[in-house]
Design a protein that fits this description.
Blueprint lengths: L6 E4 L3 H12 L5 E4 L18 E7 L5 E6 L1 H9 L5 E4 L3 H12 L3 E8 L4 E7 L5 E7 L2
Parallel strand pairs: 1-4, 5-8
Antiparallel strand pairs: 2-3, 3-4, 6-7, 7-8
Amino acid sequence: MTTVNPYIYFNGNCEEAFNFYKTVFRKEITYIGRYKDVPKTDRKIFAETDEKIMHITLPISEETTLSGSDNTVAYKESIEYNNFALIIHTDSKVEANRLFNEMSKNGQVKVPMNLAFWGSYYGICIDKFGINWKITTEEK
């Protein structure tokens, strides 16, 4: 099976963001690689400082992994072309509300959680790191 997993670029606050996401999703980070871990022969291709995150992995479910890094160039490009949102499908209205409330804390609510005309319980928020999230569950 082919899977698609989000990879998010940050401008120096990747570790802070992923510590936030691990509490929201109630999962553990399985990998953190820092730029200081890059072999000296390959360091010339990275402009980031030693302690910044080269790659981080947070498994969300069996099929989905959230990954990211501190990468100033890629971050600026992602802001310029920010034409996406991450959508979370939950099993219950209770879980949808919990995720929405935690994701939107210190962020921005774009569409409050509510029953949408197409029958889903749905909302949109931007988290405090500027990432767009859509959260939904089917009304039962």
